[in-house]
Design a protein that fits this description.
442 residues, Triger factor/SurA peptide-binding fold, Chitinase A, domain 3, 3 domains, 4-stranded antiparallel beta sheet, 15 helices, 17% strand
C-alpha cells in the first residue's frame, strides 16, 4: 500500500491536515459571526468580496490556535493585516484552481472529514452533532475542507513541477555539510595513551603519588623525551605500538579521552586524565573530519485494511473496525488474529505486520496517523485513499543512514528548501497579477 511521495507532497498534506483539525477546534465563531446582519466588504479579489465577518472569524481562529499553542500574538493591527493578506492569497489561488478545473471530489472530502473525526476520537455521526452544537452545518464544514483540498492540489501542481535539484547540487551540499562537521564526537581520531595505574580501591596517598608520577612524565615529554619510549618503559597499559588505540570515530573512545584532547593539535599530549584504572597521558596522533552520519526514526507497525466497495461503504467500514478495535482492546481477540481474518491487504497473513518503515514510505494520511500513536497504542480507524485502516505501532527505533540513503536525504532536504522558495515566488507572482481592492485602511 506504499506510494512514492515527494517532500512537498508530504508538506502540503501535513498543512492541509493541520488546517482540518484547526477548523474543527475553532468552529465556535465562524458561523455565528458570518451570520451577523451588520457586515461589509473589506477587500475585493478579482471582484470577489471578502467580508468583515469572514475576516473577524479568521482572526478569532488564529487567536484561539495561538493561545492553545501558547504562542504570543502580534499587535491587533498587524494580526488583522496578516490574516487579511492570507485570505487574499487563498482567494486568488482558489480562483485560479477553479479556472484550471481543479475540484475536490466527494471521496476526498469524505476521507478528510472521516480523518478529522477520527483524530478527535468520535465517529461521523457524533462529529456532525458537535458541528451543529457549535453552530456550523456539516455542509459548510465540508465546503471548508473542499477549499483546503483544492489549495493543496493546486500548490502541488504549480510548485512541484518547478522544483529541480541536480546531482552537482547534492554533491556540493554534502561537501559543505562535511566541511562544517566540527562535532568532536563525529571526528575520527587516533590516540595513544600512557597509564599510571591505581589499585581498585586506592588510598588518598596512592592517588596523590600516581598523579605526581603522571605529571612528572608529562614534564619529561614536554621537555623533549619520546612519548613512545616512555610508553614502552613505564606504561601500565598495553605497550604495543607506542600505546596506540587506533583510528576510529571519537564517539567510540572513552569520553574522558575525547574531552581531554578535543582542543589539542596533532602531536600534543594531554594533562593527566583520571579514570577508574589510574592516570592517563593521552597523545593525539591523527585527526580527520568525521564522516557524515544521520539517523532516521523508523516505525514498526501493523494494520488491518478494509477496502471500500459498493457493498461496503466508508461508514460501514469505520463502524466495523471500531467494533473490532473494541474487541482487541478488551482482549476478546488479538490484533494478529483479527488481521488474518479480516484484513484485505497483502500483509494479512503476517498478522498485518508492515515491517520497519522510514518516513515517506506510506501515503501521508496514513503516516501522519502513525506518527501520532504511542508504542503499542491502537489508533481509531482512519481513512486513506486505499480504504479504512486500523493500525498499531509496535516499535520505534533510530537507524543510521547508509551513504546512499544519506544522499537521498540531502536531496529531499534540498528539494524541500527549493520548493519553499518556489512556492513563495509563485504566491507573490499570483498575488501581483490579481486585482485587489482593500476597502478599509490597514
Amino acid at each position: 500500500m506504499t506510494e512514492p511521495l515527494t517532500t512537498m507532497t508530504l508538506k502540503f498534506w501535513a498543512v492541509a491536515a493541520a488546517a482540518f483539525v484547526f477548523l474543527f477546534s475553532g468552529l465556535t465563531t465562524v458561523h455565528a459571526q458570518s451570520s451577523q446582519a451588520a457586515d461589509f466588504i473589506v477587500a475585493l479579489v478579482n471582484s470577489e468580496p471578502i467580508t468583515d465577518a469572514e475576516l473577524q472569524a479568521q482572526i478569532k481562529q488564529v487567536k484561539e490556535q495561538r493561545t492553545q499553542q501558547r504562542q504570543s500574538l502580534p499587535p491587533a493591527t498587524e494580526l488583522r493585516a496578516a490574516v487579511l493578506e492570507r485570505m487574499i492569497n487563498d482567494r486568488a489561488q482558489l480562483q485560479l484552481a477553479r479556472d484550471m478545473g481543479l475540484r475536490a471530489d466527494a471521496a476526498a472530502i469524505d476521507q478528510a472529514e472521516a480523518n478529522v473525526a477520527a483524530q478527535n476520537q468520535v465517529d461521523i455521526t457524533q462529529f456532525h452533532k458537535v458541528l451543529e452544537q457549535r453552530g456550523l452545518a456539516p455542509v459548510t464544514f465540508r465546503a471548508q475542507l473542499a477549499d483546503q483540498i483544492v489549495l493543496t492540489r493546486l500548490r502541488e501542481r504549480e510548485v512541484e513541477s518547478r522544483v529541480r535539484v541536480t546531482e552537482n547540487e547534492v554533491e556540493s551540499a554534502l561537501a559543505a555539510r562535511q566541511a562544517a562537521n566540527t562535532d568532536p564526537l563525529a571526528q575520527e581520531i587516533n590516540l595513544a595513551h600512557l597509564l599510571v595505574a591505581l589499585p581498585e580501591k586506592p588510598s588518598a596517598a596512592q592517588v596523590a603519588q600516581a598523579q605526581a608520577k603522571a605529571q612528572a612524565l608529562l614534564t619529561r615529554i614536554r621537555a623533549g623525551e619520546s612519548f613512545d619510549a616512555l610508553v614502552k618503559e613505564i606504561s601500565d597499559a598495553s605497550r604495543d605500538n607506542g600505546g596506540q588505540i587506533g583510528l576510529r570515530r571519537a564517539d567510540r573512545y572513552p569520553l574522558i579521552f575525547v574531552d581531554a584532547t578535543k582542543a589539542l593539535a596533532v602531536g600534543q599530549v594531554s594533562e593527566p586524565v583520571r579514570s577508574g584504572a589510574g592516570f592517563h597521558l593521552v597523545k593525539v596522533l591523527e585527526r580527520r573530519a568525521g564522516s557524515l552520519v544521520q539517523t532516521v526514526a523508523q516505525t514498526h507497525a501493523r494494520h488491518i485494511l478494509l477496502r471500500l466497495t459498493p457493498q461496503l461503504t466508508q461508514a460501514q467500514a469505520l463502524a466495523q473496525l471500531t467494533q473490532l478495535r473494541q474487541r482487541i482492546v478488551s482482549g476478546a481477540t488479538s490484533f494478529e488474529a483479527a488481521a488474518r481474518e479480516f484484513s484485505q491487504d497483502g500483509s494479512a497473513q503476517q498478522g498485518g505486520d508492515l515491517g520497519w518503515a522510514s518516513p515517506g514510505m506510506f501515503v501521508p494520511e496514513f503516516e501522519e496517523t502513525l506518527d501520532r500513536l504511542k508504542v503499542l497504542e491502537i489508533g481509531m480507524p482512519m481513512v486513506s485513499r486505499f480504504g479504512v485502516h486500523l493500525m498499531q505501532v509496535l516499535e520505534r527505533r533510530a537507524v543510521e543512514l547508509s551513504p546512499a540513503q544519506l544522499r537521498e536525504a540531502m536531496r529531499a532536504e534540498l528539494r524541500a528548501k527549493r520548493a519553499e522558495e518556489v512556492y513563495q515566488n509563485w504566491e507573490r507572482d499570483l498575488r501581483s497579477r490579481a486585482f485587489v481592492e482593500i476597502r478599509e485602511p490597514q
